[in-house]
Amino acid sequence: MTPGTMPAETIERQAAALARYRLLDGPKEPDLQTVVELAAQLCEVPIAVLFVLDADRQQQIAAIGIEVDACRRDESMCSVALVNPEPTFIEDARLDERFAENPFVTGKFQRFRFYGSCRLCTPDGFVLGTLCVFDQVPRQLTEQQKQGLQRLGRLAVDVLELRRHGFLVADLLQEQQRTRIALEQTNATLRHFAAQVAHDLSSPLTGVLACAAELRSLPAVAGDADARWCTERVASSAQRMTQLIDDVLRQATTDAAGHRVDVDLAEVAREVIEDLAVPIKEAGADLTVGALPVVTGEVTQWRILLQNLIGNAVKYRHPQRPCQVSVGARTGDDCLRVCVADNGIGIPADQREVILEPFTRLDPTGAAGFGIGLSTCARITYAHGGRLEFGETPGGGTTVCVVLPVPS
Q1: What is the pLDDT of residues 15-65, one digit of tens each?
Q2: Same domain, yes or no, for 288 and 153?
């Protein structure tokens, strides 16, 4: 290699580093101007420049005492200095064979005699360029001046690091803004879809309610306790489904976060158990409900939450023991825990995080379902500022707790 040349791989890495700092085509950095002014004052010279170099050119990013902006890399004095890891100090460039024919020495561009420079090395080892001082007469620097110039070079790198991090933050904020806009568009689409589904389901449910009312009026149904019980379950479930659809429609057309009110969990649990009366009866489940509190939240979401947890407890019962399900609440450690415990088939400890992913099913019994119930429960719990906890019920089974912070 001739003096001042560098391996192609090194030049490519240097160019990549320059791109990260956006030095060749980015805005000027005012703080770097202060660095070159201090360098000229420290070394008692008229000219100081911060140069960066890529594969083809040298460009100044801050300067005092000179107007030069850019030149070819092979014309640069700094391309020679870059090869040397130590600072370069030349008393008279005419007497140094590396610089004697340089156009900045011969008079083609300038008639520099004294030249001093230190490399700008990034924390990860890339050399971006140099901090240089020049004079048109020969001179020597004191050791104190040489050390001071190196400190100013490190200060320049610190300024460039702040610049790079500033660009990174700006890029992240822009990406965050793009993500926010995309989420808003997605949420708007989902709200429209929910509103359309809610609207389309309203008419069939109206028909179900009308048929249930008609059935109740038939003598054969009125005189049969089982038929009457089933008809009443159909009517009450359809009525609550109508209310659920109305709530979904309201959320979809107003605020997707829902309307937070005082929610009587005892009343919600009672309604959920009524809606699940048929599967509870078929399972022969022994279901007990303890004292439940009033919480602040969204009624529809709590109904969905308890319906999923109680429904799962009944659905995934153990085939070799009578189904037992208990619903209760307790406070402690600044938390409120609303728990549904069963003696069913259980969830292995190493699967309790996986089961919260949408469309994940671990059930070996082949019970119907799409694997979205617990992921829905998790989202609702998180929306209320809480989390789901899974544990093993003493004697076998699963205990799922909705853990909420207790308001101070």
Answers
A1: 777 778 887 766 677 889 999 999 999 999 999 999 988 878 888 899 999
A2: no
Instruction: Kindly tell me if the per-residue pLDDT of 369 is higher than 70.
Output: no
> Which residues have CB under 8 Å from 195's CB, separation 6+?
249, 252, 253
- Residue-number span of the structural domain to which 54 is assigned: 8-173
Model confidence band, residue 295 (pLDDT cutoffs 50, 70, 90)? very high
Instruction: Tell which wins on pLDDT, 90 or 220.
Output: 90
Q: Does residue 301 belong to any structural domain of this protein?
A: yes
- Strand pairing category for 88-90 and 294-297: unpaired
Q: Which amino acid is at 343?
A: N
pTM here is 0.51
Domain membership of residue 14 (yes or no) is yes
Determine the Cα angle at 130 with ends 124 and 131, to 5°. 120
> What does the block give as tokens for 167?
């660009």
Any domain includes 146? yes
Range list of H helices, 26-142: 30-43, 78-83, 103-106
Q: Minimal CA–CA distance to 406: which of 338, 340, 332, 339?
A: 332
Helix, strand, or coil (residue 8): helix
